[in-house]
Design goal:
three-stranded parallel beta sheet; globular; mainly beta
């Protein structure tokens, strides 16, 4: 996609923040970064397509997108910022790409409908309270535990939540 005959390479800070009529977003392949708060408070956003060209999702990007039900973070993304998907109360499905190395503080905080997550072995850092107050009952690590694990990462999960790690994993 282009604007004024120049390719769109990023979605800027707060670009669509509080657009309550926005229900669906398909980010163009030319975009490599999504700025902080870009879609924050888009209360009726139900679906978003993030292309393989995106390498970072900044903080608060989809914070308070209460109608968002699922998200696939492509393999091209290496970091997910602070509170990027916090307060997404309808979020039931998250696929984290195999190149993500960092999950920021409070990234999925209070996403109460999220019941399972798989953490790829590429993840080396999970920030403070990243999954606090989620509805997670199943957490699967595909490799070793991250070398940097913040405080309260899985705090206040439902009773009986399980964490699965592969045989021989360390950390």
């Amino acid at each position: 996609s282009s604007y004024a005959e120049k390719p769109v390479t990023s979605i800027g800070r707060s670009a669509f923040s509080s657009c309550s009529r926005l229900t669906s977003v398909r980010i163009p392949d030319s975009v490599t970064s999504i700025g902080d708060r870009a879609f924050r408070y888009c209360s009726n956003l139900t679906s978003v397509t993030i292309p393989d060209s995106v390498t970072s999702i900044e903080g608060w990007t989809f914070d308070y997108c209460g109608s968002l039900t699922s998200v696939t973070i492509p393999d091209s993304v290496t970091s997910i910022g602070k509170k990027a998907f916090a307060h997404c109360s309808s979020l039931t499905s998250v696929t984290i790409g195999n190149s993500v190395t960092s999950i920021g503080d409070l990234t999925f905080y209070d996403s109460v409908s999220l019941t399972s997550v798989t953490i790829p072995d590429s993840v080396t850092s999970i920030g403070n309270r990243a999954f606090e107050y989620c509805g997670l009952t199943s957490i699967t690590f595909e490799g070793n535990a991250p070398s940097s694990l913040g405080a309260g990462v899985f705090k206040y999960l439902p009773i009986g939540a399980t964490i699965t790690v592969p045989v021989g994993a360390t950390g």
